[in-house]
Amino acid sequence: MSAVISVLLVDDHAVVREGYRRLLESRHHIRVIGEAGNAGEACELARARAPDVIVMDIALPGVSGIEAMRRMLAQQPQLRVLMFSMYDDAVFAARALQAGACGYLSKASAPEVLIEAVCTVAGGQAYVSADVSQALQRHALQTRSAIDTLTAREFEVLRLLVNGETVRQIGTKLGLSEKTVANHQSAIREKLGARNGAQLARIAARLGLSSMPRSDALIDS
Q1: Region 86-114: what's the mean pLDDT?
Q2: Which residues constitute the domain of residue 116?
Q3: C-alpha of 47 from chain center
């Protein structure tokens, strides 16, 4: 790593990215070298510019930041990704860290925390904000839940389903056939104990996975 930390910002809101850029570049040793609004743009910029740290939101249009990170790390395993998300519960944090994130903090964190996290991750260490760390500790003490039995692909399919995506749309975004997505959907229902889409929607809501209001495709499926 050079003396100046290069950062790629990934968030679908331009105003939010501008705020992050100004905050990070208020420190002379941090420079934002690129911005992306979705997973595709993020993967392209990561390949082209090889930043020291990628600050990425989970809730991106299309596939999630977790899936985007998985694709990046498959091609560039040296990348260091810091998840910066509105999700402060253990479900998303655990999934992100398991998928290879070097850090995780919630958007409720103070501005100084983001700077500290970027510097820590760039230095080769892991960073988890205090609120997320507490949630992970509580989660570790609980009995393994049904959500933990989902594979990484099943978790991504479930996230897209509860955000209102159809089987066909999910297949296009993940590069899978409709039959494969349908098989994943059946496996998800079986693991979570849901007989139909409506039950699956209610279970997802309890797990904190259905923050987006659109769920027609899930309920009708």
Answers
A1: 88
A2: 5-141
A3: 19
